[in-house]
Amino acid sequence: KLHKRHINTSATFRQWAIIDMDDKHVRSALRISPHYYNTEQELDALIDALQG
């Protein structure tokens, strides 16, 4: 869904971050890394996509 909207993300799984994931009681996480060059419109599109 996010990829179709040209929103880049990456997945992190427990085997790559065992201590952190176990402390948080999760098995995976979605990484979204906004940066200074992202526009306000791009951030709004991300928020809309996550809510939708």
Short description:
Helices cover 37% and strands 15% of the residues.
Describe this structure in words.
The chain has 52 residues and is α+β, with helices and mostly antiparallel strands. The protein has one domain (3-51). Helix content is 37%, strand content 15%. It has two helices and two strands. It has helices spanning 18-24, 40-51, and strands at residues 10-13, 28-31. The protein has a two-stranded antiparallel ribbon with strand order 1-2. The longest helix has 12 residues, at 40-51. The chain is elongated. The mean pLDDT is 95.
Poorly predicted residue ranges: none
Mean pLDDT: 95
**How far do the termini sit from each other?**
10 Å
Oligomeric state of the chains present here: single chain
Write down the Rg.
13 Å
How are the strands ordered across the major sheet? 1-2
Shape: elongated
Number of domains: 1
- Major sheet: 2 strands, antiparallel
Beta-strand portion reads: 15-25%
Counted beta strands = 2
The helix content is 25-40%
The H-and-E topology, N to C, reads as: EHEH
Structural class: alpha+beta
Number of helices: 2
